[in-house]
Structure formats: structure tokens, C-alpha cells
Amino acid sequence: MSSPWTPRATSSAWLYDTKGRFTLHRITPEQAKFKLCKVKRVEVGDKAVPYLVTHDGRTFRFPNPDIKVNDTGQLDLEKNEIVSSIKLHNGALCMVSGGHNIGRVG
């Protein structure tokens, strides 16, 4: 897949467009320091240790108790820890990542 420009000193991210194709978007260096991860499971493991699992398979022990399933965690890539969370609620802004409405924001 060819892109219209090649990144040099800038950061970039692959996002969906409204036709369901991946497109390359420029992001700021500050945005490149974190990643948004959807929380898939929150459970208690051996010896009563709470943990959560994100959409990309990362496991975090002793998470913030306010984080629930389907919330989004802001992951600091340098420290490899969740620094904040975004609650899923009615009216929240999101991007559709599957189905016929892929790439739509609303």
C-alpha cells in the first residue's frame, strides 16, 4: 500500500477512513507518547490479585478500581502503565472500528 507522503521526523498513526480503509494520519510527538486501550476483562487472579486485560492483550496488575469493562485506558508507552481512564457512557465520542459504519466518528 503506497501512501501520499513518507514520515520523516513526524509521528504518524494508522486510522480508518469512512470507507473502511487504513489511512496514515500525522500526530504530534506528545500524542505519540500514549496509546488508547479498550479494557476487555477485569478479574481477580491467584491470591486475590486484581488485574485487567486490554484489547491488545496487555495485562495490568492492581489497576485503578474505578476502571470497568469497556472503558478506555490511556497507556503511557514509556512507563507502560495506565495513567488515566475514559468511562464509556451514553453520548460519548467514539470511532466505529467494525461493521458497515467503520471509520465514522460520533
Describe the structure.
The protein has 106 residues and is mainly beta. It has no helices and seven strands. The strands form two sheets. Strands 5-4-3-6-7 form a five-stranded antiparallel beta sheet, with no helix packed on it. A two-stranded antiparallel ribbon has the order 1-2. The protein starts with 10 loop residues before the first strand and ends in a 20-residue tail after the last strand. 8% of the residues are buried.
SSE topology sketch:
Elements lengths: L10 E6 L5 E6 L6 E11 L5 E5 L4 E3 L10 E5 L4 E6 L20
Structural class: mainly beta
Please estimate the helix content. Answer: under 10%
Largest sheet: 5 strands, antiparallel
Strand ordering within the main sheet: 5-4-3-6-7
Q: Top keywords for this entry?
A:
single chain; five-stranded antiparallel beta sheet; globular; 106 residues; mainly beta
In short:
With 106 residues, the chain is mostly beta strands. Helices cover 0% and strands 40% of the residues.
